[in-house]
């Protein structure tokens, strides 16, 4: 897996490289600028002939931009540099590199207040590529002043945009947009990938992501805590278990899907489909008559009928639950008071690995201590709205720090947390966090979360640890949607199509 770092961790790594290993900071800046220039030339060699404009901010990110300008100039490309602050404000390594490009005769102009925006407009018109080196990883405050106008001009220019380290205006740790942000076609991040590039709002701004090595010692990245990683194909492939030739249905577990109610039949069926397609040996759907009479229930699904999610059925349901290797609880069960009372009692009594999803999360949100004190493996799968309810924040606040919120809920409930959405976050009570790299906007449709809950239940029943089940589950769920998007685009993908694609995705992972 690829290690991800927060802004604070990146600052620590820079400091260690300079002070512990003796690498001068100006060498790091040179390594960054030279490597980024090389990628730009490789990616946009023909477009560069039409001119490139480097828009440089006041700090080291601007200094990186000066190095890029020098290397492009040395390759005979027509590079221009826009300073976004008065040149007297540059210091240290950035000032050194600014003086170098001045001595080389590279065209430099300043847009340090709103009155000079027209000069930026003219230079943008005469450039094919814009290099955003205004703000880097360390930005935490909202964009304001003339920088708002600069970002607007970049975004409205309809030119190819390359961001240096981070698109300016994106928080390097959380991925939150700080009032306004540059929308890039390519982001070349420096030293290590940042957490803020891989989750939340940032995914709409980064474009393609490349990472350049600037000689940060790899062993220092590996020992960082908290440990945050990006799920990738090789890692998922390494933890998938091949089936033995003498397998039988009892070898791969029995999943109980507790789901469905009047008007919410689809959730139960989709969770069951996700479970079937992910390799469970046996799947039983426990639900109400209106759900179990539906003709879309696959014939491979066994059923157990109850007349409602209420306390009078608790003893009977708990007895049934004893035979399962894992349980999925929540899709479409409803939110009335009787159901809420049932859910709270269910959690007190269950002793099986369990996936808690959808309505179950809302029903237990008033008493999370129940989860904290239980010993059985638990996976919770909130979407942003459910996360907000569980931790007592607004949806916007929950989305503003997805990794932080998932971490907190994991600690509060002693559970694996899957915070769904763009750049799905998986947090463990141990403090480990992973971010998913698969999936696309086509998954933003009803029922996809129900399919995921079924996938997770199947993996738990097959003997995977909860953390491994969560990571494999979200990866193959997203990859199934990616396979569909490659053929038909992102519009009109359905949850049942995603479920049907799962076996092909697992086969692809196992074989390649």
The termini sit apart by 17 Å
Strand order of the largest sheet: 8-1-10-19-18-17-16-15-14-11-12-13
Relative strand content = 15-25%
The CATH C-level name of the largest domain is Alpha Beta
Largest sheet: 12 strands, mixed
> Looking at the structure, what is the overall shape?
elongated
Overall pLDDT metric: 96
Q: Kindly give the count of domains.
A: 2
The whole-angstrom Rg is 26 Å
- Helix and strand content put the structural class at alpha/beta
Number of strands: 19
CATH topology label of the largest domain: UDP-N-acetylmuramoyl-L-alanine:D-glutamate ligase
Name the CATH architecture of the largest domain: 3-Layer(aba) Sandwich
Uncertain stretches: none
Q: Helicity, in percent?
A: 40-55%
What's the CATH superfamily of the largest domain, by name? Ribokinase
Question: What count of helical segments does DSSP give?
Answer: 20
Give the helices and strands, then pairings.
Blueprint: E1 2-5, H1 7-19, H2 25-48, E2 52-56, H3 60-74, E3 79-83, H4 92-103, E4 107-110, H5 117-125, E5 129-133, H6 146-156, E6 160-164, E7 186-190, E8 193-194, E9 208-212, H7 218-222, E10 228-230, H8 233-239, E11 254-258, H9 265-277, E12 282-287, H10 289-292, E13 302-305, H11 314-321, E14 326-329, H12 337-349, E15 354-356, H13 359-364, H14 369-372, E16 378-380, H15 384-391, H16 395-400, H17 402-413, E17 416-419, E18 425-427, E19 433-435, H18 448-461, H19 466-488, H20 495-511
Helix pairs in contact: 2-3, 3-4, 5-6, 9-18, 9-20, 18-19, 18-20, 19-20
